[in-house]
Amino acid sequence: MKKCVSILGATGSIGQSTADVIDAMPERFEVCTVTAHTDARGLADVVMRLKARRAVIADASQEEALAAALKGYDVMIESGAEALEYAVQSDTDLTVAAISGIAGLRPLMHAIKNSKAVAIANKEPLVAAGDLVKSLALRHDTQILPIDSEHNAVFQVFNPVQRCGIRRIILTASGGPFRTWNEKQIAKATPAQAVEHPNWDMGAKISVDSASMMNKALEVIEAHVLFDMPPAQIDVLIHPQSVVHSMVEYVDGSVLAQMGASDMRTPIAYALGWPERIETPGQRLDLTALSRLEFEEPDLTRFPALRLAYECLGKGPMACLTLNAANEVAVAAFLQEKIAFPEILSTIEFALRQEPDINLDTIDSVEQADEAVRSVALTYIEEHCAGAMKKLKA
Ligand code: NDP
Q1: Do 19 and 122 have their domain in common?
Q2: Which residues, including other chains, have CB under 8 Å from residue 332's CB and lie 6 or more apart?
Q3: How much is the pLDDT for 189?
């Protein structure tokens, strides 16, 4: 029996890596639904490559372009926000959630109801609405499989039977493109420099998050949600080689690590094949080519985002949601050259001082809170951030 896979965010970096794994194993997988935001050409290419049954484009103005690109193909085409939310239908065995940002929340929640398993790369819904996502998965008996390489690594070495014997989770971080930069250099960083990751080829938003180490901050919260571990038992170490993707330390002193090449096709293949292991078209780790593995403590002065993650976990779910929403707004503004790199953090800190007072018990309330934080962050950017950018551009 082939596994039927749906891909939310099929045109992105994770979506394309997922397509690579599926394409290499046509005897194991077939594809139900693939989605995109605006990239009609990219979505048509995925449909043709994977012979997907349904294609959903969120931007309704792109439906015509999608239909034209798929003329003659036996595929159902839908468009619009509602079509995206309900994209995953009950013919799906496993959904890969790879939309970028909180925009993935509604499609993810529907996917949890309609698939047997959901492989999640899209960390933002876990950060902003972790409790909702987890309780829905529990109610529908849907297996959650992490794709994010660190959490996938932890998943592989975290023995739930020995939970009491787990001392801590150690998430590794490459340190991003500014790992060796001083504060002055970081203050002048451009979007082009921020998206130039030394080890991983990723979408723009997560690349900027890696440069600010906000990605690791989001991952600390993600680990707390996925593995039910208290923040004090989640540590981060800088590991520039990105070979050890994360570790679990047990009370007896054993440290179990998952290692591999810096290739997202490995964690994706793990999730697609689970509970079995499958071949991947990804790179292999050449152990003889490794001269050394380095680990160091993160520098919270140059990269304060990590400190914010622990503060937010201490405060509760609304602080985590605020961190995520303000970061999304600030990163988008940075990529559009509206704010300077350090202003990503000042925008978030400003928003965290004005957390909305909303009970996060439904998707609607999560979206309402998300909107409120976005509005605060946008106002801050408009009122406080024009100067620094002008100075940098001069
Ligand atoms: P990309 O920006 O490369 O791709 C994002 C995908 O989501 C695209 O298919 C895009 O469609 C779609 N999309 C974006 N916004 C919307 C929206 N508003 N509505 C509907 N669809 C939307 O991102 P990545 O693949 O890099 O990352 C995806 C997720 O995975 C993120 O949450 C990221 O943090 C996480 N992740 C990524 C890793 C990586 O290596 N890239 C590693 C670990 C986690 P379109 O192309 O039409 O714009």
Answers
A1: yes
A2: 205
A3: 97
